[in-house]
Amino acid sequence: MVDYANRFRPSQAEIERRYSNTRGAMERAGLDALIVSGSEYTGFEGAVRYMSGFRILHRYAYVLIPLEDDPICVFPQEATWVGDHTATFIEKREFQLHCGKWMATYLQRKGARRVGIYGLQYIINVRDYNALSSCNFDITDFEQQFDYARTQKSEEELESVRHSMAVNKEGVLKVIRSYKAGKTEAELMGLAEDVFTRRGCSRNTMDMVLMGPNGSMRPQMVLPAQRPLSDSEGMLYGLEIAGEGGHWVEFSRPIMPDGMDAITTEMMIAYQEFHALVKEHLKVGNRVEDIVNVCMKPIYDRGYQSGHVCGHSIGMTMIEMPRISTGCNFILPENMVCSMHPHFMNLEQTHALYFQETYRVGMAGGEALSGVPIRAYQGGETSL
């Protein structure tokens, strides 16, 4: 019988690796302490789980990491019975009416001066930040340093990543196999969500669709509606999930029952060329900006414009630094995991293409973790 509760619980060696890497980054930045924030907001809960093992069910939580003392999990008192707090591998746990005031008082008593916060830009609870900022701490944004410290995945983490990909593929296949004209956008999405819930993803899913007429797709990403689908449409179910181990992956492929129009066909050729270059250049020692310049060339040479970054590091937080974008000098380490998904459109913004693939950075190039070709499907296929 599978021990699901502990299936992806990190080993002591893995926990020590995470803390060693994080504290190394803290020392280089001259921090006395680091506060790692997580919230229920989809994709932003993972940093707390990475450093503590706790899965946020509702509200928010923190991991307070003194440079030279044991870490502490800090939970809002109102959420004492929300989530399985025994799942954390951190022994010290605090349940406080006002987490920010408690952390500020603790840090003052420890004589801390320079305090890093992961989640300063998006995640941290406002009242908790106000309590911390009202003290005389030198507060610094630690998002990039923390994410860089966890880019290189261990073999334990890669096992979790590959499990998530298997679940993601099952959900995508269910959508493709079940497509039939007359079904609604939301009906098909529900089939994927059924797979994800059954396979233990819980609420760690981020789903959207791109739709378009006559074998095309429009640029905007939207939520699925109660609208019947037809064979003439182009459709993309963008499915991003984290499996039981908490590692996010992104994988999808478009459905074009009656085929693609001429513009989308040309876009697909550019997409295929992009991913061929990713497999060649997403390798150890290469610089992010150089990868972008090479891989995006087939897209820009055709006169298309980019809607957002072509990819990003991904782990137990859905979007981690670095972004795979121009201006980034980060050098890729082995076993970094990246989601690659150029979103581009024609100048008239009538046509776009976008779908996801997750890669592992290798010594010889990028490993596409799905193993699925870059192509469109008609719907009804029984395998990818």
How would you describe this protein?
32% of the residues lie in helices and 22% in strands. It has 384 residues and is α+β, with helices and mostly antiparallel strands. The chain folds into two domains: 4-149, Creatinase/prolidase N-terminal domain (Creatine Amidinohydrolase, Chain A, domain 1, 3-Layer(aba) Sandwich); 155-368, Alpha-Beta Complex (Creatine Amidinohydrolase), CATH 3.90.230. The strands form four sheets. A six-stranded mixed beta sheet has the order 4-3-2-1-5-6, sandwiched between helices. It is globular, with a radius of gyration of 22 Å. The model has no long low-confidence stretch (mean pLDDT 96).
Blueprint of the fold:
Blueprint: H1 12-29, E1 33-39, H2 46-52, E2 60-66, E3 72-76, E4 92-96, H3 99-109, E5 114-118, H4 126-133, E6 138-141, H5 143-149, H6 155-178, H7 185-198, E7 205-212, E8 234-242, E9 248-251, E10 254-255, H8 262-281, H9 288-295, H10 297-300, E11 305-308, E12 311-313, E13 320-324, E14 337-340, E15 343-345, E16 352-353, E17 357-361, E18 366-368
Parallel strand pairs: 1-5, 3-4, 5-6
Antiparallel strand pairs: 1-2, 2-3, 7-8, 8-9, 8-10, 11-15, 12-13, 12-14, 14-17, 15-16, 17-18
Helix pairs in contact: 3-4, 6-7
Ends apart, CA distance between termini: 30 Å
Number of helices: 10
The main β sheet shows up as: 6 strands, mixed
- Gyration radius from CA atoms, angstroms: 22 Å
Which stretches of 5+ consecutive residues score pLDDT under 50?
A: none
What is the average per-residue confidence, as pLDDT, rounded to a whole number?
96
The total strand number stands at: 18
CATH architecture of the largest domain: Alpha-Beta Complex
